[in-house]
């Protein structure tokens, strides 16, 4: 379960950065919309998976509500899932 959560956190972070750093500029500046659609769908699936796995992992580990809050907020901020993976998921 830990390997799945770590992989999901990393992939979600990468998809987030790709979405906002590469495909959105392509869509709005170069009028190339297809990459945004593909990466957007992938990011959406990874985001939902990250939230579900974070909640399940929180229940299994019996972590505090503060840690769950950190895990969820991390999914909304660029680079934060990488921080969570390093700080919380390597020692779990």
From TrEMBL:
Protein keywords: Cell membrane, Membrane, Transmembrane, Transmembrane helix
Membrane topology: Multi-pass membrane protein
Localization: Cell membrane
UniProt xrefs under Pfam families: DUF3817
Annotated organism of origin: Croceitalea vernalis
Protein's name according to its UniProt entry: DUF3817 domain-containing protein
Ranges that cross the membrane: 7-26, 38-60, 67-84
Domain DUF3817 residues, every copy: 2-89
């Amino acid at each position: 379960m830990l390997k799945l959560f770590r992989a999901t956190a990393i992939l979600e972070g990468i998809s987030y950065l790709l979405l906002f750093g590469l495909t959105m500029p392509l869509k709005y500046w170069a009028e190339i919309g297809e990459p945004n659609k593909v990466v957007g769908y992938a990011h959406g699936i990874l985001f939902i998976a990250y939230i579900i796995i974070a909640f399940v992992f929180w229940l299994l580990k019996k972590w505090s509500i503060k840690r769950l809050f950190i895990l969820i907020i991390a999914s909304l901020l660029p680079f934060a899932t990488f921080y969570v993976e390093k700080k919380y998921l390597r020692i779990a």
